[in-house]
Amino acid sequence: MNHGIIMGGVVDYYYDSIKRAPGAHKIATHLRKQGWDVEVLDFVQSWTLEELKQFSEQRVTNNTKFLGLSATFSIRFKTLYEFVPWFKEKYPDVLIIGGSQALYNTQGIPLDYMVHGYGELAMDAILKGTVKYTEHKWLNGPTFKRVDATHDYMAARMKDLSTHYEDRDYIEPQEVLTVEFGRGCIFNCHFCTLTHRNIKEDHSRTEDNLYDELLENYNRWGTTNYSISDETVNDYTEKLQRYATVISKLPFKPNMSGYIRADLLISKPENWSMIDDIGLNSQFYGVESFNTKSAKSVGKGMESVKLQDGLLRYREYMRERGAYSGHCSLIAGLPHETLETLRETKRWYRDEWGSTATTIGNSATMNPLWIPDVARPFEEQSRFAENPTKYGYFRTTIDDSNSNNAPWVDGDQKRFRGLYEELQRREGKGISRTLKSKESTFEEEMAFMNWKNENMNLYQAIDFLEHEWYTDEPCIKRQPPLVFGYHNWLIDPKYTWEDMQDAQTELPLPVELAAKFITSYKKKKLNQ
Ligand code: B12
Ligand code: SF4
């Protein structure tokens, strides 16, 4: 039987994540249906070079045709820069294939092929030897063949989106697994970087296909916790209806977190009971701005007071039914936003939405507007980033923005000094538009435009965030965990999904337990 290995890992903001590599399991499932024996190695960021070598020596045989590297986010880990060349030298006939939605997530790693986009159909073509590709070279690095799955092998209309796990994955019941309902989004917001947006026809999996996956995971591993990887779960009602109907027939009620468009949620109360039936009680709202004109400028049209009142009403509705967590994600610096409108948003968060000294409310985060400084080839750009001047954004410098040369003063939470100093350093060195090499991974992460518009500039935005948003007030300090981060707590069976509505400060992260979980996983894999 043809054999392959896929290694992957998801790194979180907190520490090496105990989340399974969703793309690795998806591709493995796809190939197994065609008779392949494909094993997934999770948490690759936590494996040492020696352990990766040991694993390979145990697994690779004459039947092994490929090593896959799965990068939901970046996998530019030091161990992989060392391991992959070793693997290539030792097993020159085994293809090394990277896969990610963003080409640069494997920057500098010596690969035979790099697939960008949803990779199932591209993988089929590579393994059949019929794939279309173009030759490239990483900046200061090796050459590779690029396979474009965003156009040539677009796997965005799949009716079967199942993921099957195996005994050799050692899934434990408390884990939060990833599930997909569909790929792409029917909308086309101005700053969105999603490749498959503006899709008008149905792009979701069949409801039976979803039902089978949830039931299998419950029966085999005891899984009840999920995060949904769709960009917008509530883009249309008919899809919600189909999934609510089948999920209600399961012998358990799942808990799910997912991206919800808040304006649609509020304008379609007929969807509320369906969302409840799905178990989607932890919701991430890409609100972007509570200033109506600003939200409209990026394609999100609802009048802000209506949106805010609607969210509070919806919260009451959900709390009567059980667990509920709602997270508003906001941006400082969209068109028409001023320091005063940002302060107004903070007042609403402090007084209405967030936690107080005695109650636990909901969470909201605000980030500075990020406009990429230089377009990365083969990566989807938002309309916003393609033409910032059209939206009234111009380049500036820290010297211009901070004209009286005031020294940076840390706020309560000391969050933005690094960013401020980095902006200054880049400008001083004239390196603001450098694309990174594998040795200087930081550069590219920081390569965003230092902007100004007619109302404010980036320096003012980070100064506001440092001193007025991220303060030590209860709405910030006592906010519950962010809805896509629950796995960091739930890996400890002492925590329940309902606990995720408590103040984060009262929920110590089980860092040691997570480390032990990964160590034990590695041991099982190496002694299989
Ligand atoms: C959930 C999610 C989050 C959660 C993650 C929580 C967690 N730990 O799981 C949160 C909210 C924390 C988050 C944060 C961020 N996210 Co996010 N996120 C997602 C989302 C919606 C789902 C991820 C997922 O599970 N996908 C499902 C799996 C199946 O997809 P996949 O792993 O990519 O696998 C497919 C392909 O990559 C490929 N593939 C994968 N492996 C392999 C292997 C082989 C051999 C092959 C051939 C192919 C292949 O085929 C797979 C199946 O088709 C995606 C969008 C999306 N729908 O994927 C964005 C996405 C991954 N996020 C993105 C971004 C930009 C971010 C942030 C940087 C946002 C920000 N400004 O803060 C941060 C970065 C966080 C970090 N760790 O670095 C971008 C990444 C683009 C990029 N440049 O890397 C995405 C793609 C959205 C987008 N289109 O803009 N995110
Ligand atoms: S921002 Fe959200 S709703 Fe808008 S196009 Fe992107 S995924 Fe769809």
Give an overview of the whole structure.
- With 528 residues, the protein is of the alpha/beta class.
- It has a domain of 153 residues: Rossmann fold, CATH 3.40.50.
- Helices cover 34% and strands 15% of the residues.
- The strands form 3 sheets. The protein has a 7-stranded mixed β-sheet with strand order 2-1-3-4-5-7-6, with helices on one face.
- Helix 5 packs parallel to helix 6 and helix 6 crosses helix 8.
- About 2% of the residues have low confidence.
- The chain binds cobalamin and iron/sulfur cluster (SF4).
- The site of cobalamin (B12) has 36 residues, from helix 1, strand 3, strand 4 and helix 4.
Summary keywords:
528 residues; alpha/beta; Rossmann fold; 6-stranded parallel β-sheet; binds cobalamin; binds iron/sulfur cluster
